[in-house]
Amino acid sequence: MKKLLFFFLAALLFSGCVVVRQDQVAVKRRFGKLVGEPVREGTRLYNPFVATYIKVPVRTVSKKIDLEIPSKEGLTIKSEMSILYRVDPNQIQRLLREVGVEYEEDLIAPVFRSALADVSARFMAKDMHTGERTKIEKAVQDLMMTTLEPKGIIIERVLMKRIVLPASLTAAIEAKLAAEQDAQRMQFILDREKQEAERKKIEAQGTADAQKILSNGLTDAVLRYQMIQAFEKLAESENAKVIITDGKTPLMLNED
Q1: Which among 60, 143, 190, 211 is placed 20 to 30 Å from 249, CA to CA?
Q2: How far apart are the first and last CA of the chain?
Q3: Do residues 51 and 30 make contact, with C-beta atoms less than 8 angstroms apart?
Q4: Where do you find CATH 3.30.479.30 in the chain?
Q5: What CATH number labels 61-167?
């Protein structure tokens, strides 16, 4: 009977069991204090009356935050952001001891909001829809790392997933883009017309040069030679012809 009672009490005292997966790290807390080395993976038994295990994910975690941010010109912009972060397994005890299990809401989110507000205030609202977005993300990430890395939190990426600009600014940007497209289209037309005019100019110059060369080449000797050739061709013809000439230029009359 005593042995049975002993086994019953032992089973009751060690009835707690924790399973730590490969993407987690567990820290034992006994009487409110963190004790022992972090458990990377496996199974552990513990007395649930005096102790418990706190499991912390060490994989990359994505946290979504919706907030309004200021721009350089003083506009308020709605944004949908994501933070990709992970916890350093070697600093989990320090993180839990200094911040607690709610480190995401108590530490990461406030630091992110402060960093984003500071960085976004350096950029114009329109920049958040251009290639400057990457610079904003990187600047926010670097600013967060200065505070969070010593605490054991590694920020892998900050992503601006969606930006909603004020309606008036959106209309102005669209109008500007349309104007730029019209200007580019007009410039294309002007360039094409200029090229066509240049082509016609070159063609006309070539024709003029050819006529000038031909005119300079028509000497009296050349004209006399061409006249002799014309007489020879007429003489070879079997048809009867009447030719009137002044000795320089032939004039042929038909028989009828």
Answers
A1: 211
A2: 155
A3: yes
A4: 61-167
A5: 3.30.479.30
